[in-house]
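B., you asked whether I could sanity-check this one before it goes into the benchmark set. Here's the sequence:
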Amino acid sequence: MDGIDSTGTDAPGFDFTRLRRFPDIEAENLFAHDATDELILAEAAAPLAALAGEAGQETHDGGSVAIVGDRYGALTLATAENHRLSGLRVHQDGRSGELALSANAEALGLSGRFVSRPLDREFFAGVGTVLWQLPRSLDELAETAELISRFARPDVQVVAGGRIKHMTLAMNTVLGQYFENVAPTRAWRKSRALLVSGPRAVGTAPDAALAFPHEEFNEPLGLWLCAHGATFAGTKLDIGTRYLLDFMEQMRPGASAAIDLGCGNGAVAAALASARPQLRVTATDQSAAAVASAGATAARNGLEGRVTAVQDDAMAGFAPASAELVVLNPPFHVGATVHAGIALKLFDAAARVLAPGGELWTVYNHHLDYRHQLQERVGPTWVKGRNNKFTVAVSVKAGV
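And here's what the prediction gave me:
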């Protein structure tokens, strides 16, 4: 497959068609890479080439390269293969993306060329080049920009990019708060790159407090909600979750343990643990930011001993037939694409993890009408409530 060189002209390069999304949702309208990956790699070609070893040799100088937001490995594996680099630092918020990167690396013979790490101050220490698939959330953008600006090298070069339809001038404004120079490139195949340099935070005390996670007191819940930048809904309580929580006392009375599946900022886990002292709640999400947020929410409300936050892809690490109660507000999109696949994946996960007689409580928009799918995949399903927008249903795992 053709790529582009640093001038934007077509040039041979990494074969992106070899990449898969698995274990994330795969479909004809969902792809493992886009033009933004190619554009970022082209714009970063010069600094990456300067790190490369002699032809045919591998170099560990990739340790000064950080890659953020690589969805399924396009940026990481193309950098490793094209520039013969290893030791690349990679952060992907989604666990399914980490698993896809690992699987793609093994299939392409590139395992061991990178290390997946949390997004924190240590991640950017000593980094001189950052490749960054831009997020759509301004909070996520700001959290990452602050970390780069404060902890990467003063001469760090950031090559960020995104699809033009998802980019706004507000992104330039946010980046301009942390960097002296933010220069857009010309558009290419509906993508654009931003060349960013000159961190403003050089010299900031290393132990100075970071802006994230944010926190906000939710009056109706009587709880503090905490959120890192990539967390869905931030510190807010989305209206579907708010409606689901109206049914807390009906959820498997007498249960001693519950799972908040797709926990986001941990509002459901914290509310359950607070309202039902006998419950121990596991908050789980494939998003690293969500899991960190749920942990922070639990700690802020004094619930550390009763809420445990775990990153996992659709409860893959949970034992079959082990759960009494699962509570779920499923997403109805995969990335920027509206797609039911992720909800169905989570229904199947709940069916596997629930013990016979265990309950799955789900909230969803009326137009999605998941009742048939829940009945087919989990067990007998009853609608317990409907308001002007949402349906709440309970499904009981068959086999009692």
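One thing to flag: The chain has two domains: 2-199, 214-396. Otherwise nothing jumped out at me.
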